[in-house]
Design goal:
Rossmann fold, 8 helices, 9 strands, 21% strand, five-stranded parallel beta sheet, alpha/beta, four-stranded mixed beta sheet, 49% helix
Length: 203
């Protein structure tokens, strides 16, 4: 079985851009694609960025208990299929899953081994607000909601194994890949828990 790296962070912190950068540069990485009912955005591809589902299809999968975790955010559903996680981990040495902190806690109930959490922090809340406004995809009300949610997300960052600050995407991606490399190269010899303790002490 491969190793699952869960990447989380507040909205507009750059999670999707960082993961895209990593996948473009590192062919050995594989992403677990999550599901959503929100509208597809310009530049996104179904099955690559998300699996885009209707609310009816999503609810049917909920009723069949197919999700490892799901949540409703800003009137849209987001979730990850347990089958998608297991399939990726069985086929790939390194799998990346982008979900929020609540999802991370739920996924850990099903995947109890070979899982590491990495939280991406913004340089500041002010910088995060600039990025939200630059996207120009939300109303003022939605921006304020996302900023409130961002503060809650950041409050849960201590539940993760590692923290990375995203000032620039290439550097943040390098920092994350360094973590992945350290886990992958040392886990066999030292054990994951020992490596986590050393790494957190380095922070």
């Amino acid at each position: 079985m491969g190793h699952l790296f869960v990447i989380s962070g507040p909205s507009a912190v750059g999670k999707t851009s960082i993961v895209r950068y990593l996948l473009d540069k590192k062919s050995q990485l594989s992403r677990v694609v999550t599901c959503t009912t929100r509208a597809i955005r310009e530049g996104e591809q179904d099955g690559v960025d998300y699996i885009f589902l209707s609310k009816k299809d999503f609810q049917e999968k909920i009723e069949r208990n197919e999700f490892a975790e799901f949540s409703e955010v800003y009137e849209n559903y987001y979730g990850v299929l347990l089958a998608s996680i297991r399939e990726s981990m069985s086929k790939n040495e390194i799998s990346i899953l982008v979900i929020n902190w609540e999802g991370f806690q739920k996924v850990k109930r099903f995947i109890t081994k070979n899982i590491t959490g990495i939280f991406i922090n913004p340089p500041s809340i002010e910088e995060l607000e600039k990025r939200l406004r630059f996207r120009n995809t939300e109303s003022e009300v939605d921006i304020q909601k996302r900023l409130l949610t961002a503060r809650l997300d950041i409050a849960h960052s201590g539940e993760y194994d590692f923290f990375v600050e995203n000032r620039e995407i290439p550097q943040a991606a390098k920092d994350i890949f360094d973590i992945i490399s350290r886990i992958s190269s040392n886990q066999k010899d030292k054990g994951q828990e020992a490596l986590r303790i050393v790494s957190l002490q380095d922070k």
